[in-house]
Design brief:
heterodimer; A: 691 residues; Alpha-Beta Plaits; 5 domains; 27 helices; 49% helix; B: 334 residues; BirA Bifunctional Protein, domain 2; Methane Monooxygenase Hydroxylase, Chain G, domain 1; 2 domains; nine-stranded mixed beta sheet; 8 helices; globular
């Protein structure tokens, strides 16, 4: 027979964002538990609302399969004394197996006789196994935990009821003093307690009591209701998936409704209206067919359509003071000038140990110009970049951003335009925060991208310089995310900048600009480099690059992030070539022998000391590669090195590097060292694994 | 309860809530007479939430937030608003239903509205407090903060207290259907504005423009010194009064813009250290009295034994450390 089992954990309202991950977690844990307990099942269906996590398990086996096994005990000569009496060892063993000496059989193992007991372990019934579920439930993890009453259990919210129903029978258990039974609860206001006859009655019984327990069905109901309203009014909606998911997990019985606000508030910038509706109230905003925001919204009530007018009126009223505040800020903010806001940044701290925001902008302006020059920006671009860098944090001191912090940068762009700044200057103000997350969108404008790099680079260098270096999970200023952002921008734009060793150049530029730094710039140079290389590893790992290639290219002294990326791409592109193994082996042989030579500083090869023609051949080939190296891309250099492989092989075949003649030896080592230095432009090829 | 068409005045609302929560076993306390930013900071919540003794109380707390003053101009922002505070320890299993019952008493039938429990965890770092809970939405408007205290004065709660804080003005605006707090009817024929518009203006003027910063800075230091002295003397309640005074003085300085970002963290840290010490000392004083509010004698004795054991261990540890320190000091002298 196959069975159905219903587990429901009833809780006080869970946070909306926790509902979906939690039911998935419970599903996984219960499935793992049943597998571990050897109880078969066909499928598990999830149900989840803010007040409940439930699983309906179908096709559940009756019991664990029985186990028959022979258990090996002591050797016969230990189990019996000379007279054939059972020893303590034998008696102890059988007792341990729940048997007696009468059950003993002897079997030969590798020519020696041993005691064996045939054991039959009857499988536990499914009900018995299900009684272990409290341990599974209480082992769950949540992003925030709490205790309640006198209890020590930590859970997401207090557990208020439990349903544990195997077909039509309760499988009894307890969590704290909540006893599992067959009674679930309907909607908090519209519903009642509901006694379930059968596990499989669950979904329908709750539906009749104003709870749509199936998340997908509930979401569909909301979507359909919203679509109907939108269609009826000929509106256009952005059905934001995250908002829909959140709203879905705030209700058990949804009723969507439309509300309105005074059109005079449409004078506010769109982002302000959208934030007020979406983030603060979980409203969906609406547009007309021309893309203009409308003075309407759609929200979802947790209940039916009775007295909906009250609910609409209330929700409309809540919006007014927010919009009124925003309008006040918007009007007030425009009464002063950007210069004044910038002046105020002198009193806004970037970090106690570093400087004010104002001083940060001065540094970033220098960095931005330096980077802009490296990238060959036009004079106009450089001028725009300079303007943006000198004002880009100004919106932090506006009242609007003071109230709606999430609009930083966005309001900066809007206000900058109102104050007559050029479009690309304004855009850069918004874009300098990008990417906002590891996967977030990158700046679209060139100036925005340079400013984004300059701002992040200043933060990284500054925090490192004052010793606030991220470690473990401790990265309060999100420096890893910022460094990764730089790497992503560079990767997208293929910008060659000496960022990983830029400190000396920066120090000179700051000095020239008359900027006094609150720290010594050169300290932690190595750590900053390593920090960037780690982010590059993160990038490569995301792109599923082979580990040894990652190791090879990040084992580098290069300053240019783009070069490291290019090297990775170049090696990756040729890793499956027929001659790859031979090439890398030739080059790594060079590296290893050159390393032994321990030659440093300026070295030259003296052609007059050549003994074999292959020496001259390699000499000419290397000289050609070397001469061109500086103007070539990493990929081209790698190609040139690969083309040397046959010459190198020939060289090794014909020449003994460690020649008895010290001069010849030294000359050959010098040749290999020059070659090794060229190879280092790509990375440490010795890290590559070739089989 | 039959509702007449007459809307509840603010004092009716207070009266209804008092009666309701008294019926649920809360003691009706009075507002505590030292300035404070929230009902949570009343000793009837902050101190009484700590320790093993049961405690259920309800009271109105005028709450001063100098930086929120708007000269009586903004319809929703106030220098001083009123909270109706309910604290129940241990948290009752039906605390959500009790709360919803109180709304019904106020004539708010859940079937005629949309009431939600939306996640909002609460934190007051300057008092070393943190809790988990919700803001309660009434047709989209936040009218109540609902919290299961987890840590108070940096002490883990056991048992856990539940706190329900109604924003009285918000709730009354909803019930009376007015858009400005100043249009609320406090009592028959007397408006909120009649009572509070003038003090709102004056306190805003004072907090933003006229406060004597030097005096306030000195006060803060003096209050802090006094609190610390009193803590050493085991005078928990007077010490706590001075912590409250520190907190309010800091809020005044903050409103005046006299506190930089750097200094801010420093001030809050100083207040937190005192709050933490007082929380510990309060439990110890209650222990010395034998935790008399635990009425189950067996539980009282058991709890008392546990706490006494812990206290003795702590004492031994402290003695050991003191001896070690003394030894080191001696060495240093040589």
């Amino acid at each position: 027979m196959t069975n159905s089992y219903l587990l429901e954990v009833g809780v006080e309202e869970m946070p909306a964002h926790v509902v979906t991950p939690s039911i998935k977690q419970l599903h996984q844990r219960v499935a793992d538990y049943l597998k571990e307990e050897r109880i078969s099942f066909d499928s598990i269906k999830e149900f989840a609302t803010p007040r409940r996590m439930a699983l309906l398990i179908s096709g559940l086996g009756d019991k664990q399969p029985d186990i028959d096994e022979s258990v090996k005990g002591p050797a016969k000569k230990i189990a019996q004394d000379q007279d054939g009496n059972w020893t303590k060892a034998a008696i102890g063993f059988t007792r341990g197996q729940g048997a007696t000496v009468d059950d003993i059989e002897f079997k030969e193992v590798k020519g020696v006789e041993y005691v064996f007991v045939e054991k039959h372990i009857a499988g536990k019934s499914v009900a018995e196994v299900l009684q272990g579920l409290p341990g599974v439930i209480t082992a769950m993890n949540f992003p925030t935990l709490m205790r309640w009453g006198y209890n020590n259990l930590q859970f997401i919210r207090p557990i208020r009821w439990l349903v544990s129903l195997l077909n039509d029978q309760v499988v009894p258990f307890k969590i704290l003093d909540v006893e599992a039974g067959r009674t679930t609860r309907g909607h908090r206001f519209l519903g009642h307690d509901v006694e379930l006859k059968q596990a499989t009655d669950y979904e329908d019984a709750l539906q009749a009591d104003f709870v749509i327990a199936d998340q997908a069905k509930r979401k569909q109901v909301i979507t359909d209701q919203i679509d109907a309203i939108v269609k009826k009014n000929d509106w256009v909606i952005n059905k934001d998936a995250d908002l829909l998911e959140e709203v879905n997990n705030l209700v058990e019985w949804p009723t969507a409704f439309a509300g309105s606000f005074d059109p005079k508030y449409l004078a506010l910038p769109d982002p302000v209206l959208i934030t007020s509706m979406k983030d603060n109230q979980r409203f969906f905003y609406l547009r007309d067919h021309d893309g203009k925001l409308l003075p309407h919204f759609i929200a979802v009530r947790n209940g039916n359509s009775d007295y909906l007018d009250n609910v609409i009126k209330g929700n409309e009223r809540v919006l007014v003071p927010r919009l009124e505040d925003a309008k006040f800020f918007y009007d007030e903010d425009q009464k002063i000038t950007i210069d004044e806001y910038v002046e105020r940044l002198k009193r806004v701290s970037f970090h106690d140990k570093i400087s004010s925001m104002y001083d940060k902008m001065q540094r970033v302006a220098v960095i931005a110009q330096l980077l802009g020059n490296h990238l060959g920006l036009s004079d106009e671009e450089l001028a725009d970049l300079d303007r943006a860098a000198h004002i880009y944090k100004f919106d932090l001191t506006t009242q609007m951003v003071g109230e709606f912090a999430e609009l930083q940068g966005i309001m900066g762009e809007i206000y900058a335009k109102l104050f007559g700044e050029k479009d690309d200057v304004a855009a850069a103000i918004r874009e300098h925060y990008m990417p906002i997350s590891a996967e977030g969108a990158l700046p679209e404008t060139k100036i925005g991208a340079v400013l984004a790099i300059a701002d992040k680079l200043d933060s990284i260098i500054s925090f490192f310089a004052v010793g606030m270096i991220p470690s473990g999970s401790n990265d309060p200023y999100a420096l890893r995310r910022q460094a990764f952002g730089i790497v992503r921008i560079i990767n997208a734009r293929n910008w060659h900048l000496p960022l990983m060793g830029i400190q000396p150049e920066l120090a000179a530029a700051f000095k020239q600009a008359g900027i006094e730094l609150p720290y010594a710039l050169d300290e932690n140079k190595g750590q900053v480099r390593a920090f960037f290389l780690d982010r590059l590893k993160q990038l490569f790992s995301g792109e599923k690059l082979r580990h040894d290639i990652t190791d090879a290219v990040t084992d580098t002294k290069a300053d240019d992030i783009a070069n490291v990326i290019e090297a990775a791409q170049a090696i990756d592109a040729h890793k499956d070539d027929a001659d790859f193994k031979e090439t890398i082996e030739a080059l790594t042989r060079v590296l290893r022998i050159a390393k032994k030579g321990k030659l440093d500083k300026e070295i030259t090869v003296d052609p007059t000391l050549f003994v074999n023609p292959s020496e001259k051949k390699l000499y000419d080939a290397v000289a050609a590669v070397q001469a061109a190296a500086a103007d070539r891309t990493v990929a081209e250099n790698f190609a040139a090195l690969r083309s040397l492989a046959p010459v190198i092989s020939e060289y090794f075949d014909e020449n003994m590097i460690m020649d008895k003649d010290e001069k010849v030896r030294r000359n050959r080592l010098a040749q290999l060292t020059i070659l090794a230095r060229l190879a280092a432009l790509v990375g440490n090829l010795d890290d590559l694994i070739v089989k | 309860m039959t509702m007449t068409t007459k809307k509840l005045s603010v004092q009716d609302i207070i009266f209804t809530l008092e009666q309701y929560w008294a019926k649920q076993g809360c003691m009706l306390m009075q507002a505590y007479d030292t300035e404070k930013g929230a009902g949570t900071m009343s000793p009837y919540t902050f101190l009484r939430a700590i320790g093993p003794e049961p405690w259920s109380a309800a009271y109105v707390e005028p709450s001063r937030r100098p930086a929120d003053g708007r000269y009586g101009q903004n319809p929703n922002r106030l220098y001083q608003h009123h909270q109706f505070q309910v604290i129940m320890k241990p948290s009752p299993d039906n605390i959500q239903d009790l709360y919803l019952g109180s709304l019904k008493e106020l004539g708010i039938d859940p079937l005629e509205h949309d009431i939600r429990f939306v996640e909002d965890n609460w934190e007051n770092p300057s008092m070393g407090c943190a809790g988990v809970g919700w803001e309660i939405w009434l047709d989209g408007m936040e009218v109540t903060q609902f919290t299961y205290f987890q840590v108070v004065g940096e002490l883990q709660m056991h048992p856990v207290a539940s706190e329900v804080t109604y924003g009285l003005e918000r709730l009354a605006e909803y019930i009376q259907n007015v858009d400005s707090v100043y249009d609320l009817e406090w009592a028959d024929g007397v408006l909120y504005g009649d009572i509070f518009k003038e003090p709102e203006y004056e306190h805003s003027k004072y907090s933003f423009e006229e406060s004597n910063q030097e005096m306030l800075l000195k006060f803060f230091n003096d209050y802090e010194a006094e609190a610390k002295r009193l803590i050493k003397l085991g005078l928990v309640h007077p010490a706590y009064d001075y912590v409250l005074k520190c907190s309010h003085t800091f809020n005044l300085l903050d409103a005046r813009g006299a506190v930089s970002v750097t200094e801010r963290a420093g001030y809050l840290h100083r207040i937190r250290i005192m709050a933490k010490t007082i929380a510990k000392a309060f439990v110890e004083e209650r222990r010395k009295r034998g935790f008399p509010l635990i009425h189950d004698e067996k539980l009282r004795q058991k709890t008392l034994d546990e706490y006494t054991k812990r206290a003795e261990k702590a004492k031994q540890r402290a003695a050991k450390q003191a001896a070690k320190k003394a030894k080191q000091a001696q060495k240093g002298d040589k």
